[in-house]
Amino acid sequence: SQELEQSPQSLIVQEGKNLTINCTSSKTLYGLYWYKQKYGEGLIFLMMLQKGGEEKSHEKITAKLDEKKQQSSLHITASQPSHAGIYLCGPRGGKLIFGQGTELSVKP
Amino acid sequence: SQTIHQWPATLVQPVGSPLSLECTVEGTSNPNLYWYRQAAGRGLQLLFYSVGIGQISSEVPQNLSASRPQDRQFILSSKKLLLSDSGFYLCAWSVPGRGGTEAFFGQGTRLTVV
Fold first, then answer.
1. What radius of gyration do chain A's Cα atoms show?
2. Are the beta carbons of B34 and A33 separated by less than 8 Å?
3. In 3-state terms, what secondary structure has residue B85?
4. Are the C-beta atoms of residues A67 and A23 closer than 8 Å to each other?
5. Distance CA B110, CA B90 (A)
6. Among A102, B48, B84, B95, which is least packed, fewest CB within 10 Å?
7. CB distance A86–B49 less than 8 Å?
8. Does the pLDDT at position B41 exceed 60?
9. Is the pLDDT reported for residue B1 higher than 80?
10. What is the pLDDT of residues B86-97, one digit of tens each?
11. How many CB atoms lie within 10 A of CB A93?
12. What is the secondary structure of B61-96 as a DSSP string?
């Protein structure tokens, strides 16, 4: 079965700093989703990447898919406290599974 | 527009008691439905998913069961709760087919078994 590994597992950054979260799949990726979760709440869809090399941005969050490496990266520019939460990646197609998540804290 | 309702928001139950969590979806037909458990605020463990009425796939052998008595209703149950059943439970739905689409999540149920 397909597994997704995210790194780092947790991250604490100073407000205004940039950061990157990685998601690596054990199997071929045919697209990938990124979600964000505020603690104790449901997940909010951020973006979907459908093909290799695709890059999408939503406000200050940019995600890229590298199909050959079976991985995706999510980059936040000039982080803000509102970016804090758990970021999860999931493969497109098949069952809706997720990586173990990356917990991001942003210090004001 | 489509919405998903999940209740209750919090629940405290004694060990050995039964459980019933309900999830309903509005504004769409024949959705894929999912139940997840999240421990310690981390990754989501897929428990059950359903592609239609009465069609339930179990991902993890455990003390829980799921049922889909109606197209847009998904129920998570247990006959006797264990301490290890404590956690944050999330229901979600997605549009079937089309190579996979984004999922929409309920606000979750915080279950504490005491």
1. 13
2. no
3. helix
4. no
5. 9
6. B84
7. no
8. no
9. no
10. 999 999 999 877
11. 14
12. -SS-EEEEEETTEEEEEESS--GGG-EEEEEEEE--
The C-alpha atoms of residue A83 and residue A90 are separated, in whole angstroms, by 19
Q: Which two tokens stand for residue A12?
A: 């604490």
Q: How far apart are CA B15 and CA A43, in angstroms?
A: 29
CB nearest B49 (choices: A43, A92, A95): A95
CB of A79 closer than 8 Å to CB of A106: yes
Give the integer Cα–Cα distance in Å for A7 and A99: 10
Q: Do A92 and B108 touch (CB under 8 A)?
A: no
Query: Measured over all CA atoms, what is the biggest interatomic distance in chain A, rounded to whole angstroms?
Result: 40
By Cβ distance, the residue of B42, B90, B103 closest to A100 is B42
Residue B5 has pLDDT above 70, yes or no: yes
> Residue B23 in contact with residue B35, Cβ under 8 Å?
yes
Please, are residues A35 and A98 in contact by the beta-carbon 8 Å criterion?
yes
* A81-99: average pLDDT: 90
Q: What is the pLDDT of residues A45-73, one digit of tens each?
A: 999 998 888 899 988 999 999 988 899 99
- Cα separation, B50 vs B36, in Å, equals 12
